[in-house]
Amino acid sequence: MLPIILCSIAAVAIIAERFWTLKKDKVLPAGLVDKVWQMARQRQLTQQQVSELSQGSPLGRVLAAGLVNRDYDREEMKDAIEEVGGHVSYDLEKYLNTLGTIAAVTPLLGLLGTVVGMIDVFTHITSAGVGNPAELADGISKALITTAAGISVAIPSLMFYRYFRGRVEALTVGMEQEALKLMEILNHRRNRGNARVAQ
Question: Is the model's pLDDT at 132 over the cut of 80?
Answer without folding.
Answer: no
